[in-house]
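HUMAN: Mind sharing a backbone?

ASSISTANT:
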Amino acid sequence: MTGSMPVTLLLSIAYAVLLIGRFLLRGRDERPGKQEEDARIGIYQIMGSRQLQSDAAQAWSNRAGIMAVIADGIGRANTGRVCAQIAADTILDRFEPYQKLNDPAYFFRSVFFEANKRIQQTIGERRGGASTGAAFLGGGYLYYAVAGDIRIAIVRGQELIPLSRGQTMDVLAVRAYEEGKISRQDAVWSMEEKRLWNYLGQDGFHEIEICEKPILLKEGDKVLLVSKGIFEELSYREMEDILIDCASSKELAERLARAAEKKDSPQKDNGSVILIQQDGGLHEKKQF
């Protein structure tokens, strides 16, 4: 009977089990009506032209600091959503008990490889995965890691400063050229190739992109994480024009997502935004 069960149904059951598990593990923290709004963090999502929302966008705080994650699911039906949720859950579950995160780079490398393994074990032979970006704010510094194509940036004063490059073929080609591994002509030929080079759930998972040095944050800085449905629709200049406003993070995240939603592209992807203000702490989990 189980062998004939449709794949979509199996994935739906797996996703339901994931959500139930999280509710049981964190039920005391997530009871309806027990959380207060926090203007320092904004999370907003749009569907784009997709029928399903396959992004997971979540943030969690503890004594160590703030961890924010966006995972952009890859796969048909519920496969992408399940993969994205596994990626986010793995990172946040590992982060939750920390009192102090002494080595964020090691944490990111180990937890991303763990998430990759969990996704592969869950989906088996099916094609799926998740582009995943995570940012940790602690001790006045920002650390980040990316597997795939999630963009992370800082809004400082009147400027949006890009940080992550993403792990697509065109970025890989530029890096190889900078390191003298390929010719300039080969790099130019590869510039139009936007296909993912690395993501969680992939066979032959590669090393993640990770910030080389911690970034010292200044009061008033805003840390931004966005998925494809946002950065493929809006230029950095368009995002900058929205984010330099002094409105709350929640309002700015919604403005950014709505601006991407208004674009007339016929194949808009799911879009997710997380925006975190540096001038204060985060006191509850937020997720979509």
User: Anything to note?
Assistant: The longest helix spans residues 7-26. Helices lie at 7-26, 79-95, 104-123, 169-178, 184-189, 228-231, 236-243, 249-261.
